[in-house]
Hints:
The chain is of the alpha/beta class. It has two domains: 13-59, no CATH class; 68-262, 3-Layer(aba) Sandwich (Rossmann fold). It contains twelve helices and eight strands. The strands form three sheets. It has a four-stranded parallel beta sheet with strand order 6-5-7-8.
Amino acid sequence: FPQLVKMVPSFGSSPDVGSFDNVNVEEILRLKPDLIIASVTSPKGNQKISDAGIPVVTVYTGKATIPGLYKEFRMMGDILEKPEAASSLLSYWDSHLALVKDRVATIPTEQKKKVYYMLGKTTHTNGGGWWGQEYITTAGGINVAEELGTNRDTTTEQIVKWNPDVIIMSSNEGGYIPISEIKNNPQLSTINAVKNNQIYECPVGSFWWDRPSPETPLGILWLANTLYPEKFSDIDMNKETRDYFRTFYNSDISDPDLKTFFDPAPAPGGK
């Protein structure tokens, strides 16, 4: 995350202690942390850390929900002894999520955009038991893969049957698939998203905007604006982004950096 390192340069030289279930406990012990914040999806790694005598606090990461994130941010505010900062962030969430909710509430179900969320490879997605469900539905869309539940893989044939109106792509799991690869895939040529050129890369700020993070409202606002531009024509995403980063990170975003948020580096092979 280049923007994160620009804001906090020390992150660029942070030691690699592994992640999830693949953690280097010896390296963690060398750093002498007071606390580890880890994902609920890595119970084995968490147990290793706990067995080494280090307190572990878990968060839901990819299985998060918006109500759950509210609780986690309040918890982090308490842990870091910055409850006012947590309250300020959640006030922002309140206002911006309400804005989106109010504007998409009037869209009839039959007119809502059907969205396919693509992560790392064409057939990897999020069923209804994962964050992608929350992300898409909060922005007023329909997650075509909801029926997968806690599964995250499907088939090309199933994508064709779902016939999504829009495809959104994340770099969260292995980088973006080149848009040209989707457009030129003969198996996908009949779906509405391909025929109507409705294929988009999810932005990346200091973190992926399509994943749970403090910047989630920006990601949801971007997606709602992408799905229903006529309902969000007054929203300037550049201004929204600059205001957010200035308010919560005390960081002024340069024009070139801002451009990379909405036009992230292409995957090998181009877009």
